């Protein structure tokens, strides 16, 4: 299997167990905790079978610091959007599986279990054409940052609250929104796979200060990002810097 096929297989395995659990009797925090654990197990089983020599860097496991010397590291968020997953009927949660190698992101997959989609880096999803409307900017539904307000003002846009970093990033990829602005806290696993897919699709993805998003760094924190259509990048970066 190619790396991208391994990523997609792992993401699909986690999506399947998440949907099965969601159809049971659990809800809220209990469902979220069960989903985190089951999705982690599903992903690590696939990676252990197909890439047993690689290191796994996951939100749901202790940080194996050997990753800092490794040539291949899978950066995983088994359930991105635990809060949304625990709320009946909400679709905006995701599964992230990305491979870091040779100093940067490579193969990746993002599963959107509630809508039955898996987006991968190869073949990259085609970027929909721009729509004649005020730009739509995805933000956190619980803590939208001030920078997003400034970005919206700069381009005459509107804010769209959504759950899960993966869902918001893939909403840009799918053309449902035009940008995603986040500040105030995030970790490498929250964005690695969605950013890899977004870059493969031709989107711009950067830190809010315009610097590159770097992964497999010693500090797991990666607290901010901008993902947007390339034609909006200059104006949005000027607004959020």
From TrEMBL:
GO MF entries: 3'(2'),5'-bisphosphate nucleotidase activity; metal ion binding
Query: Which InterPro entries would you find in this protein's record?
Result: CysQ/Inositol_MonoPase (IPR050725), Inositol_monophosphatase-like (IPR000760)
Keyword Lipid metabolism included in the entry's annotation: no
Q: Which UniProt keywords apply?
A: Magnesium, Metal-binding
Biological process annotations from GO:
3'-phosphoadenosine 5'-phosphosulfate metabolic process; sulfate assimilation
- Cofactors demanded by this protein: Mg(2+)
Per UniProt, what is one Pfam family of this protein?
Inositol_P
Binding-site residues for Mg(2+), renumbered to this chain = 59, 77, 79-80, 190
Q: Which PANTHER family match?
A: 3'(2'),5'-BISPHOSPHATE NUCLEOTIDASE 1 (PTHR43028:SF5)
Protein name, as recorded: 3'(2'),5'-bisphosphate nucleotidase
Natural source organism: Geodermatophilus obscurus
């Amino acid at each position: 299997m190619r790396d991208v096929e391994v990523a997609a297989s792992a993401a699909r395995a986690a999506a399947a167990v998440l949907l099965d659990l969601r159809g049971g009797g659990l809800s809220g925090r209990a469902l979220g905790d069960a989903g985190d654990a089951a999705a982690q197990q599903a992903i690590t089983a696939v990676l252990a079978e197909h890439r047993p020599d690689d290191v796994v860097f996951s939100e749901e496991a202790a940080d194996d610091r050997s990753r800092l010397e490794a040539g291949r590291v899978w950066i995983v968020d088994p359930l991105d959007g635990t809060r949304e997953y625990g709320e009946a009927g909400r679709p905006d949660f995701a599964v992230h599986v990305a491979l870091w190698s040779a100093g940067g992101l490579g193969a990746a997959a993002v599963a959107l279990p509630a809508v039955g989609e898996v987006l991968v880096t190869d073949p990259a999803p085609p970027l929909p054409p721009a729509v004649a409307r005020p730009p739509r900017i995805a933000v956190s539904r619980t803590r939208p940052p001030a920078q997003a307000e400034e970005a919206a003002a700069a381009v005459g846009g509107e804010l769209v609250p959504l759950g899960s970093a993966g869902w918001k990033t893939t909403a840009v990829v799918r053309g449902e929104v035009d940008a995603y602005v986040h500040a105030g806290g995030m970790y490498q696993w929250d964005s690695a796979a969605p950013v890899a897919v977004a870059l493969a699709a031709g989107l711009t993805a950067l830190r809010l200060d315009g610097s590159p998003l770097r992964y497999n760094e010693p500090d797991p924190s990666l607290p901010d990002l901008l993902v947007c259509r390339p034609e909006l990048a200059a104006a949005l970066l000027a607004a959020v810097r």
